[in-house]
Specification:
The protein is mainly β. The chain has strands spanning 3-7, 12-17, 22-28, 33-40, 45-51, 55-59, 68-71, 76-82, 85-90, 94-99, 105-110, 118-126, 129-137, 141-146, 158-161, 179-184, 191-195, 200-204, 209-213, 220-226, 233-238. Helices cover 0% and strands 54% of the residues.
Length: 239
């Protein structure tokens, strides 16, 4: 890629042209921008931005006004795009699912079976097509939700505990940490989670097993992602 998009608390989104080393503002909101996603569709290409102003906006970077605006029930916290699907986490434990075919269309808004604030979301594929999403919360727990709840087997829809202290003494309290990030591997379909316990872990959602955990870092891990083919895994550690 030759361009990087970044949004922040100044309520704007800027495009960094890596070849020319120039910055151009390409989007704006009324409140801080929380998410930016690139959409490459057969008939159009744009960026999708989500904000604490309770809107999703779709922008042709050559135009000063958005192509489309979707009003949301609450502030946007996280999002993911795997054409032709997009998912958006809202405050109030809501998840909005969109179809991106022809033009962005909201399919439905649902509430995952997690009882506390949602932090991140990631789409997984089955047979090469978007099939559902994983979402994580501040309660040391994540959920796997298929898009088609009518035909999905019960085993495909579940929650699991993660990023909690290990204890065999039931009389001692267990330390529970926020799960700050969740991402699916683009090739194998396994997933990674990162948490405020300063650890990352890899999971097999189909076998419902933990594949590998990391040593504890000095600070919390705030986000993570795989590169386009899954050969690299990156995470950010901060206070």
């Amino acid at each position: 890629g030759s361009k990087v998009f970044a949004g922040g608390c100044d309520k704007s989104v800027k495009m960094w042209d890596l070849n020319a080393n120039t910055f151009t503002q390409v989007a704006a909101h009324d409140q801080p921008v929380k998410t930016v996603n690139w959409i490459q569709a057969p008939g159009y290409q744009c960026i999708m931005t989500g904000s604490w102003d309770k809107t999703l906006k779709f922008w042709d970077t050559r135009q000063s006004q958005p192509m489309m605006t979707v009003n949301c029930e609450e502030r946007v916290y996280a999002s993911d795009v795997q054409y032709p699907a997009a998912v958006v986490v809202l405050a109030g434990r809501k998840v909005k699912v969109l179809s991106l075919e022809n033009q962005p269309t909201v399919l439905h808004t649902s509430e995952p079976p997690l009882r506390y604030q949602l932090r991140d979301i990631s789409i997984f594929k089955k047979d090469g097509k978007p099939a559902g999403y994983g979402v994580c919360s501040i309660e040391g727990r994540a959920a796997i939700e298929p898009f088609d709840n009518n035909t999905a087997n019960s085993k495909d829809k579940f929650t699991f505990k993660c990023h909690r202290s290990a204890t065999s003494d039931h009389n001692k309290p267990q330390e529970i940490y926020a799960v700050n990030g969740i991402k699916f591997h683009p090739t194998y379909g396994t997933l990674a989670t990162v948490g405020s316990d300063g650890k990352f872990a890899f999971w097999d959602k189909d076998a419902r097993t933990k594949l590998k955990g990391s040593e504890q870092l000095d600070n919390t891990i705030t986000c993570c992602d795989f590169n386009h083919n899954g050969s690299y895994f990156a995470y950010a550690s901060s206070y």
